[in-house]
Amino acid sequence: MRALRFELQGESAFFKKPDVNSYAYFTYSHIHKIALFGLLGAVIGLGGYAQQYRYNQELVKHEKDNSSKRIFPEFYEILQHAWISIVPHGDRGYFAKKIQIFNNTVGYASLEEGGVLNVREQWLERPHWSVYVADNSGLPDGVFDRLVDYILNSKAEFMPYLGKNDHPASITSPVLIQLDRPEREIRYIDSLRSANIAPHPRGKIRGREMQSYFKEYMPVALNEENNGYINEQLVFTNHEVDPASMSQHDLERLYMDERRTIYFI
């Protein structure tokens, strides 16, 4: 299977979690599927949430038929069935996180004395991932070739960023590659993967690395009601996997890039 591979990194990143904001806005530990779709959509010029909102508001304004309402932003409508794989780098796949504090002094932003609103955001520091986009039936005709053209030739319709426009994205080392199916039983998976694949109860840690195990609920889809996140537990670990825990669905999403085993989510 053909795939587009590139390195995605930046000085910082912020992928906001929508469920916690009492003290600070927290970030997901890695770029998630929806954020990556948004980044790819920006590169090839697909509309986002703002364009979806304006389009639907125009329908309401002119009292047009609601059946033509846009359920999803354009980037998600086009890319929602795409297969992507995310390989974290850094210290055992973890990136440092730090709280950044901003002062909003426009006056109407806060009811506090002085009208100053303190905004706290948790940022990832120097994140780096290898990203794979599969050329299969998950993408409409022509979309994969457009992605290849833009990314291989360092083009973009809109500036790609890592969660917010405070965090410019660097896309480097793009290459069109051929992925192969595994010829033997898989022991380790080098990318984010479904948590349904269990660690082997008597498995080993790869090489001489210290054991690491990351697990987090991360967005993998949007719902139709309000475009809220649909989450799934994803795992990144250097622990040997249990082949008996893999479903047919899991096996179909495993591919080899030379010695690297990747899982498409």
Automatic annotation (TrEMBL):
InterPro entries: CRISPR-assoc_prot_Cas5_HALMA, CRISPR-assoc_prot_Cas5_N. GO terms for biological process: defense response to virus. Keywords: Antiviral defense. This is CRISPR-associated protein Cas5h. It comes from Fontibacillus panacisegetis.
